[in-house]
Design brief:
This protein is of the alpha+beta class. The protein folds into 3 domains: 5-94, Integrase, DNA-binding domain (Double Stranded RNA Binding Domain), CATH 3.30.160; 100-212, DNA polymerase, domain 1 (Orthogonal Bundle); 216-419, hpI Integrase, Chain A. The protein has helices spanning 5-10, 61-76, 81-97, 100-111, 128-146, 156-168, 172-191, 204-210, 222-234, 239-251, 255-259, 263-266, 269-272, 294-307, 328-335, 347-358, 363-369, 384-402, 414-419; strands at 18-23, 26-30, 36-44, 47-56, 274-277, 288-291. The strands form 2 sheets. It has a 4-stranded antiparallel sheet with strand order 1-2-3-4. Strands 5-6 form a two-stranded antiparallel sheet. Strand 2 (26-30) and strand 3 form a beta hairpin. Helix 4 packs antiparallel against helix 5 and helix 5 packs across helix 7.
Length: 422
């Protein structure tokens, strides 16, 4: 006869332990001291085994039957239920250890500045200022919300709460940076299986739209690119730095990644039309591929004739053996008549992102060429054929603008885009 709650409650202790069957190998064991336990008797390889489901009333009859069903499934598959329960408990314990803070601290340690002396001398890390800023965001804004949460339990809404709180106190730009930090921690965790996805990635666009406009990142419209082209054509000095501006406009890589480029890295690209930037020079720490349009190849050949006898594409004007300084491009832009911060080298990334999206290029193709984080962060060759076409279209588009052609109303015109492919 199957067990019932009433039958269990009324079961009295005897001089010896006895069993009340429920069916399928499950039974209630009643001990002389009155303690009651649910058990499951089963066989694997014809050998008898006993599985302790749990004590009554801590575990109800319904809960015991549910556990019995799971245990029978394990036995049917040839697994001992006790072994599976122990494994699940170990997994839970491990997950509890894999908190956001523990992982973030590990990530932070891997990125922080490496001392000039010691076994790791010569390896690159964050600058001291970047390290300090990251630490402040973690301690002040991120840890109070995520701290000891298990990585796999963190949802997009949790990250959005951090962003909203920072925006509410009037720090929208800081909110973007905090979101990026959370995203980088998750990318780090995904790389070794501690997390399956990045909950911060999905709100990257939403957070940017909420933020206030940053003047030096304002994208240029085609008419403004025309003005810049005219000014560059009329500027008859500092040709090396003019080429730097043109390369930023055509390739929209980050300024630091361009100005610190050695010739040894770029020379193979003059033949292959594919520039491979190693991960150690990239902000996101992964290899980046830049398909080179014919216009970019010609600019690089011209530049090689000017600086090819040195180590870097853009050598420092006063310090031998060093690349061009941080403000080298921006200084020329000021000479061209642009007030400080009204236009900087970084604005060309926003320009390309905005106009290519208006031209209906797929967002993931544009993001990949911008070397932004993505769900496929480690496949640097992804969409290479589409990106190669896009970069050719982009350079031809810039040339049309420089020639004075009106393109403003044609950005979404399929025929216009097709004319730019060749």
């Amino acid at each position: 006869m199957a067990l019932t709650d009433l039958r269990i409650r009324q079961a009295k202790a005897g001089e010896k332990p006895y069993r009340l069957a429920d069916g399928g190998g499950m039974f209630l064991e009643v001990r002389p001291n009155g303690a009651k336990f649910f058990r499951y008797a089963y066989r694997i390889d014809k050998k008898p085994n006993l599985y302790a489901i749990g004590g009554y009333p801590e575990k109800t009859l319904l809960q015991a039957r549910e556990e019995h069903v799971r245990a029978r499934a394990h036995v049917k598959a040839g697994r001992h239920p006790a072994h599976e329960r122990a494994r699940e408990r170990r997994e839970v314990i491990q997950l509890n250890k894999e908190t956001f803070k523990a992982t973030a601290e590990e990530w932070f340690k891997s990125k922080r500045t490496i001392p000039a002396e010691g076994p790791n001398k010569g390896q690159r890390g964050w600058s001291a200022s970047h390290e300090d800023r990251t630490r402040r965001y973690l301690d002040k804004d991120i840890y109070p919300k995520l701290d000891n949460m298990a990585l796999r339990s963190i949802k997009t809404v949790d990250v959005a709460g951090i962003v909203k709180a920072m925006e509410k106190r009037g720090a929208p730009v800081a909110a973007l940076i905090a979101r990026q930090i959370v995203s980088q921690v998750f990318v780090y965790a995904i790389s070794d299986g501690r997390a399956d996805f990045d909950p911060a990635y999905i709100i990257r666009r939403t957070a940017k739209r909420r933020g206030t406009k940053v003047v030096h990142k304002t994208p240029l419209r085609p008419s403004e690119i025309r003005v810049l082209s005219d000014r560059l054509s009329a500027f008859k000095k500092k040709r090396v730095r003019v080429i730097a501006i043109l390369l930023l406009l055509h390739t929209f890589i980050r300024g630091k990644e361009l100005r610190t480029t050695p010739w040894a890295e770029v020379l193979p690209a003059l033949d292959s039309s594919l520039w491979v930037i190693p991960g150690e020079r990239m902000k996101m720490g992964r290899t980046h591929l830049v398909p080179l349009s014919p216009q970019v190849v010609e600019l690089l050949k011209e530049l090689h004739a000017l600086t090819g006898d040195g180590e870097y594409l853009f050598p420092h004007s006063r310090k031998a053996g060093l690349p061009m300084g941080y403000d080298g491009v921006n200084y020329v832009l000021r000479e061209l008549g642009y007030p400080r911060r009204s236009l900087t080298g970084h604005a060309f990334r926003a320009t390309a992102s905005t106009l290519l999206n208006e031209m209906d290029f797929r967002l993931e193709h544009v993001d990949m060429q911008l070397a932004h984080a993505s769900g496929d962060a480690y496949n640097h060759a992804r969409y290479l054929r589409e990106r190669t076409k896009m970069m050719k279209v982009w350079s031809n588009f810039i040339d049309k603008i420089a020639r004075g052609e009106d393109v403003e109303g044609q950005l979404a015109n399929e025929g216009f885009i097709a004319s730019l492919v060749n």
